[in-house]
């Protein structure tokens, strides 16, 4: 099959750019959207060529299956710009492959990899001025696929839309994150869709997260739905725990998203001489480690949140504080990964992709 | 709070009815849609008055949360018309209440009950000619709510749309149903959203159901995700098993939808002198009962599928056939419930609501 390159992609430019109305010094996360988007339709049994078009409304029949059956998947990536104006992505092929893993599990036809990658490149050429350069800001990239096909029958749609939209964004969390370890509600089932970035995984977390927020926590740490004895991950982050000088994180499974930040952190930590262990972590172990002082750090890791230090956790009505560390793994690793992402350091891993 | 009545609802009629193009003698399920729909918007912190409008396209921003986070819920109901042209609903308030149960779990603002019920009545006045009268046909009613609010942040939307659309429909299944008992994939987690009619619950079933179809089964019977030892329910039906002369069905839980057909069947069976037991049913018990001849019947029960006899089940590569019964509970109970729904019999339970 002939591969598509970004120059094959039809581009329709907006007549009125919104860029001058955006305050790039005060960016929230994912609230303002760049001028263009990539769109690509699946119908008649195949994906049709992607196009760059002005960011604008989508019109659907009321019986479109996206409204009824949650048949949707997404990805989250970022584009960075350095002081020379060069533009970079971080491990983008991992997002392409994960989107197709999610697609398969949700019975969505897999997307040709070049439609995604070359489409993204074309979009980021057109909207290159939308990539922020301020420290801590970046262009958040949202690739997503949803069912457009019609009908009130709980079965896969016969038509889909793939879109990439982008949003210049600041930090996901403001400040440290206080988490609640959840024992009643669950994020995902054994044999379910937890490992996929399926839309429905997120909506299911909103209510329990709201309850946690009402109690003063910003995030829920999910535990396994069978015993609730093991920590799994957070809403949009994998979780790391430092006990003495070892960095622990749960193995991924069909319940846990295989985060690109998570696996990068594991490799970076090794390279920095930090001992890592990938193994199940019991809630009781956390509690004990907190009590005897060996719990030094906890942090979340994800594209949106980068590395977000966790200041404490609540469990069964008790609150466990995690004291600040002078030599924090979280800051050390965050500095490393951000330096690689933004072209401020060598990239021995070959993760950075120059546009 | 003043209650809304159907006469308060603004009605905008279509200029061109599609009804003459519909072949009411050859209706599929949920494929053609009536002329009008009810719409109702949540914004600025409240639900605004519903209106009846022509059935037609919905326009949304690409960042609408429905596309990203699966924040959607729905219901399934039917309207029936008898030989006098009188129109009926079946236990509609149970759907209203279940929609709000689902809403709560999905962090969607609950809908005023009268907006739903009076809105539905207004819609069914306008589209009364769309209710089929042929045996086995009815007007399938699809109330649903989805997140319209914008933003690439995994948190509840600030705007929603409630719609009721309807589709004159024939049978959901054609013929008997052969099922596969699933041990690898799961439908829902303990503490998850399985008890809610959340969009994401359905998309997650498509791929495993496709695999089952490829093996010659029409439906999957889900088992609990922890042990896979107990049968739970099917894609859009609760499941009943007849062992000797006792009718068994699983208790509902936070993993299983509390079906209105299921609970009606339990009451009808009691009234018909059929012994019922609500208890967990082991897969191994089914296999053994099939082998020793005590497994007399299995059937699915749901609004769309009414009562659908199951002709056999596959489990670990073996197929277990369920022989036809002369005195089948499935047909006895189906006849009873359909007679009540369609005003062909007394309704001692007060389930039928005349429009
Ligand atoms: C549920 C969940 N876990 C973990 C992550 C982190 O994954 P990644 O590092 O690939 O962004 C995300 C965000 O993408 C997520 O949604
Ligand atoms: C998962 C699931 N189980 C069971 C049912 C049956 O419920 P009811 O009888 O209320 O239609 C449905 C259909 O609504 C369903 O979607």
UniProtKB/TrEMBL annotation, chains A, B:
One Pfam assignment: Aminotran_4
Entry EC no(s): 2.6.1.42
Enzyme class: transferase
PROSITE patterns per UniProt: AA_TRANSFER_CLASS_4
CDD domains for the chain: BCAT_beta_family (cd01557)
Example of a GO MF term: branched-chain-amino-acid transaminase activity
Catalytic activity: L-isoleucine + 2-oxoglutarate = (S)-3-methyl-2-oxopentanoate + L-glutamate; L-valine + 2-oxoglutarate = 3-methyl-2-oxobutanoate + L-glutamate; L-leucine + 2-oxoglutarate = 4-methyl-2-oxopentanoate + L-glutamate
Protein family membership: Belongs to the class-IV pyridoxal-phosphate-dependent aminotransferase family.
Name of the protein: Branched-chain-amino-acid aminotransferase
Species lineage: Bacteria, Pseudomonadati, Bacteroidota, Flavobacteriia, Flavobacteriales
């Amino acid at each position: 099959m002939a591969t598509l390159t970004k120059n094959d992609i039809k581009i329709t430019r907006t007549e009125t750019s919104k860029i001058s109305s955006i305050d790039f010094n005060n960016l929230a996360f994912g609230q303002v959207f760049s001028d263009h988007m990539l769109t690509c339709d699946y119908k008649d049994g195949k994906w049709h060529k992607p196009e760059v078009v002005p960011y604008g409304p989508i019109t659907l029949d009321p019986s479109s299956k996206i409204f009824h059956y949650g048949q949707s998947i997404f990805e989250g990536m970022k584009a960075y710009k350095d002081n020379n104006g060069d533009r970079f992505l971080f491990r983008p092929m991992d997002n392409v492959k994960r989107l197709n893993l999610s697609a398969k599990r949700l019975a969505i036809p897999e997307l040709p990899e070049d439609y995604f990658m070359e489409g993204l490149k074309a979009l980021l050429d057109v909207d290159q001025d939308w990539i922020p350069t301020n420290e801590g800001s970046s262009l958040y990239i949202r690739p997503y696929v949803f069912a457009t096909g019609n009908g009130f029958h709980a079965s896969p749609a016969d038509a889909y839309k793939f879109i990439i939209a982008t949003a210049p964004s600041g930090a996901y969390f403001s400040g440290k994150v206080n988490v609640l370890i959840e024992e009643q509600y669950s994020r995902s089932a054994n044999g379910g869709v937890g490992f996929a970035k399926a839309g429905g995984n997120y909506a299911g977390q909103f209510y329990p997260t709201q309850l946690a927020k009402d109690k003063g926590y910003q995030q829920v740490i999910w535990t396994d739905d069978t015993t609730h004895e093991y920590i799994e991950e957070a809403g949009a982050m994998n979780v790391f725990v430092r006990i003495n000088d070892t960095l622990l994180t749960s193995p991924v499974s069909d319940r846990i998203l295989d985060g690109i930040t998570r696996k990068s952190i594991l490799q970076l930590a090794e390279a920095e001489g930090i001992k890592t262990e990938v193994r199940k972590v019991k809630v009781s172990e956390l509690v004990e480690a907190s009590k005897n002082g060996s719990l030094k750090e906890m942090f979340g890791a994800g594209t949106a949140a980068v590395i977000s230090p966790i200041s404490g956790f609540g469990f069964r009505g008790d609150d466990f504080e995690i004291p600040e560390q002078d030599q924090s793994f979280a800051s050390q690793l965050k500095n490393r990964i951000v330096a690689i992402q933004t072209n401020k350091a060598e990239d021995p891993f070959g993760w950075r992709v120059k546009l």
